[in-house]
Amino acid sequence: MKKGWKYLIGIVVVVVIVIAGYFSFGDKSQAKEKTITVGVVAPADKDTHVWDAVKKEAKDKYGLTVKLKEFSDWNQPNKAVANGELDVNSFQTKEFLDDWNKAHDNTLTSVGQTIIAPLRLYSKKVDSVADIKNGATITIANDAVNESRGLKLLQNAGLIKLKSDDSLATTKDIAENPKNLKIKEVDGSQTARALSSEDASVVNGGFAVSGNIPLKYTLYKEKLDKNSKPYINVLAVSKKKKDSQAFKNLVKAYQSKSVKKEIKKQYNSLIIPGWDLDLD
């Protein structure tokens, strides 16, 4: 009888340990799933306010904790996601992501759209495009995607003419340059600072915000139409994790009415919500 009781007690102890271990492991996995880290590039105070709205929406509606990891330039966040050091990043256009994947033989994937930041041509030295002098220097971003986008902006402003609009353009594709402009390529993060030394600069909306560039220095603004779709920013993740519920909830949180309202409040027209634009 005693042996039977000991045997039964032994079985109960084993079962309890197994169950406790299962739920302990499950709780940790669930906790990890409910906390994600988003990589962002050089966020300004306005960006932080928008992400605070995202965090609140994610936490209140989906029980998802969102943390931010800051990077200083565009070169690092994709590598961090690809290496598994980061869950998701939010800093780039779909076109930039596609170009990075091609250059690095990778498959990072967009799980949702965020904002669009129209390019603007700014100057502190002249008041209009027509006032730009012969031989003037204009800075543009030096990465392939934003260099092409900047050159197309200059073309639409009537300053240069490109050989073709069909592919990523470089300065070698300039067919006509009637004012003999000097196109200076710099890191995207330096385009706002270049306004202090150069005649004009093409600046992305994000860097215009972080650089506190007043709208009064705008000479020309990028038009939004069907050709602007590749310029909408995205949330990028590893392809193998794209179906994670945490990422789906992050997208829903970002694309909420409260976040849309905060974007409009913080950025005015420098940056606008990109997920529900009618660009057709």
TrEMBL record:
InterPro entries xref list: Lipoprotein_NlpA
Membrane topology: Lipid-anchor
Record keywords: Lipoprotein, Membrane, Palmitate, Signal, Transmembrane, Transmembrane helix
Keyword Membrane: yes
Subcellular localization, as worded in the UniProt entry: Membrane
Coiled-coil segments: none
Protein's UniProt keywords contain Oxidoreductase: no
A Gene Ontology term for the protein's cellular component: membrane
Membrane-crossing segments per the record: 7-25
Family of the protein in this entry: Belongs to the nlpA lipoprotein family.
Protein name as catalogued: Lipoprotein
Organism lineage string: Bacteria, Bacillati, Bacillota, Bacilli, Lactobacillales
